[in-house]
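Attaching the record inline, Q. Sequence:
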Amino acid sequence: MTMETSGTAQEAVTRPCGYSRCDRRISYSGSGRPPRYCQPERRWPDQGGKTCKQLAAEERAAGRAAELEAVTAAYAATEDPVLAAIQALTAVLADRHAAGEAVLEAVGGRVAEAERAAAEAQAARQAAEDGRASADRAAAAARRDAELAAEARRVAERRARDAEADARDQTSQAWARVVEAERAAAAAGERAEGAQRAEAHALADRDTARDRAAELAENNKELRAETKQLRAETADATAAAARALTELAAAQARADAAEQRAATAGEAAAADRARAEAERAERLAADAAAAADRAARQDAEQRAATAETAAAAAQARADAAEQRAETADAAAAADRARAERAEQRAETERAERLAADAQRPPETT
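Structure, as predicted:
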């Protein structure tokens, strides 16, 4: 298709050279007067180096010279019949011309009338087409308005549904927050009550610990006095035991001497007395040792009681410190519970406001 179009365009812009013997075609760019001969000029060496234009002029001159005489003779021979025929034809043509003029006038009138009717019909058709176009435009505008109204209605319905769904969601969330806030408030109240009960228990335990500490302090005073007395008795018992031991040693020495004398002198009575003194000294020593043991045990028991009292006092002080710490913790817990209740109340109020806002109908635009 493209090659045929190119070939047609090539044939349309080329033409043969004006010299009959030249087989070249002349290209024409489409602007200016088209050339009739080869450009650039072609020269023929066998014709004396003449151009196509010169050789074509010579051909025309030779043709005119060869045909002029024959044409002149033929023209002279046909001049009279041609003139007669021309005259007859002129008369016929004059009549024909008159009849044609009449026909033209009649046709012109009918043509003018037909043209007027056609113009009127064209105007009526144009008016009808304009009216139909206006009606079409009005109908299209009405359809567009109806489509826009339907789309606006659908958008409004969708927005109303979305607003209703959002309102339901917000209401559900608000009630959920209210329930959660009430649950948290109840838990905070329970924690506050527990903190108050713990504080009351801590105060009661503190009072008990104070009473116990006072009682232990009084017992400690009594134990200190008893310990002092026991220490004095222990010292006396220790001194008596020491004296008994000294006397025992002396009696033992006298008994040994008496036995030695009895053994040598046969003094049985002296030996009996010595043995009696030795036995009495042993009993005194045993009593002194028992008294010393009792004093040592009482001292140990007294020290144990004193240590126990000190431990009880330390425990009481520790319990009092722990009770103070628990009281402080309970107070802090009560403060946190009060803060949580205040926060829960604020959250509940905010949830109620959100619920009220969600229950209001959405604004329509």
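Residues 1-71 form one domain. Helices lie at 2-12, 52-77, 79-265, 268-359.

More tomorrow.
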